[in-house]
Amino acid sequence: MPVKTNNGTKVPKIILDNFDDILDFGKKEPSAVLMEGIGEMLFDHMEPFPDHKFKLYEGQQLEDMVESIRQLGILLPVILWHTEDNKHIILSGHNRVNAGKLAGLTKTPVIIKEKLTLDEATLIVTETNLRQRSFTDLSYSERAYCLAQHYEAQKAQGRRSDLLEEIEMLINPCIYEENPTSVHVEQKLESRGKVGQEYGLSASNVGRYIKISTLISELLSKVDAGEIAFLTAYTLSFIGDKTLQKQIADVIERDSYRVDMKKAELLRSYYEKDKLNRDSIELIISGEKSKKLKSDKPHPMKVKAAIISRYFKPEQSVKEIESVIEKALEMYFEMQGLKEATG
Description:
By secondary structure, the chain is an alpha+beta fold. It has 16 helices and six strands. It has helices at 59-72, 94-102, 118-132, 140-155, 159-171, 173-178, 182-186, 191-199, 203-212, 217-224, 230-236, 242-255, 261-272, 278-286, 305-311, 318-342, and strands at residues 2-4, 10-12, 37-42, 78-82, 88-92, 107-114. The radius of gyration is 33 Å and the shape is elongated.
């Protein structure tokens, strides 16, 4: 169905389900934004993106991709970053490369992207992963990483914002043709709220995810595994010292302790009071620090009814009974003292 633009011309409406769709060059013109060179390259000449935050497909999802590649090959090009030191870093297509190798291939179609900064390359990695997968399919750590990168891109000026806009334009060109001023309107929105709108999250939840992204990988992996709850992880993220975070992760791993909200709040409190160290971490995570201190006072007790009826008459008052018991105890301890004195 054609879409009318502001100047009155009609263009075909393009619906793109995910980022990979835009790389189907048999259907449309290559864009100059992410396509500075097109060809084939051996897998051996490519490198994964440094500290790649997104988990590779496993299980049935991987098997299906491998089988599809065996039958049809890799149809969608892998996006590579040609760096100044002549490396070719994978920006989009880690799963395709992995599945292609398992399917017995040695090379793949590629798109070469040049003259990028590390921040720009990171943004492409993040955005393309978000376009290829449902946000709900990502792990907590992947969501946190994506939202943090996206949020920074929304706040930043210049090239990083331009890249984000270019990627969005590639995914939904009809939106930009219908309303070319929409970008300027969106830029006036508060950054965190804007990111939340894009992923169906409240601004507060976006803030929590972004905060959680500051946790070290050892703690984030425990969030992904369900060993640390989301809000507990958010509380832990206020411990800004990475060394202390590592010590927390080490104690949890070593003794298989679980950290609940109560322990997390205590850890955060100690950190904010500058009292968090290896010893206090051990005590808090083991549960010793949260136990109530034992009172110096003896526990209250009751005299059994059978003993009362044995030594006292029913008509005697409670006051009389207490008085007799007190005198009896005085005599008992006095006799004990005499025995100890006489040997």
